[in-house]
Write a structure and sequence with these properties.
With 126 residues, the protein is an alpha/beta fold. 38% of the residues lie in helices and 27% in strands. The protein has a 5-stranded mixed beta sheet with strand order 1-2-3-4-5. Strand 3, helix 2 and strand 4 form a beta-alpha-beta unit. Helix 1 packs parallel to helix 2.
Length: 126
């Protein structure tokens, strides 16, 4: 069993949630709860760091979209950073890749909150 607790820190007023391992429904539930708690506190600019994630399933993609919608209701956004090729493939197959801004590093994702972005997603520069 992959027991995981998301690690969260704040950098430049952006909350960063670091995930690792295999993101099954249990781990995604923990991440979703963390995003909801942050949104309640007014932390609506969030980066989900996925560099240490080995695998996600389609359920995880659905929860990513739900978290994006939740943050969007509050005027915020979820951005993904450090997406591995395996995870990117699942995002693409689920049709979620074009919904998110995806960055090669957490720092690039954080910096992007101060820049304007147009819908359609951003390509990772790895």
């Amino acid at each position: 069993m992959n027991v995981f607790s998301p690690e969260t820190f704040e950098m430049q007023s952006v909350a960063v949630i670091t995930a690792r391992g295999i993101l099954d429904w249990r781990e995604m539930g923990r991440i979703r709860a963390e995003v909801a708690a942050l949104a309640e506190l007014g932390k609506i600019e969030i980066v989900l760091a996925l560099a240490n994630v080995e695998f996600i399933n389609h359920f995880a993609c659905g929860l990513f979209l739900a978290m994006q919608a939740l943050l969007g209701q509050h005027g915020g956004e979820l951005k993904l950073a450090g997406v591995t090729p395996e995870v990117r493939k699942i995002l693409r197959m689920a049709g979620a890749e074009s919904v998110f801004e995806i960055y090669g590093s957490v720092e690039d994702a954080i910096d992007s909150f101060s820049k304007e972005w147009s819908p359609g997603g951003s390509e990772v520069t790895q």
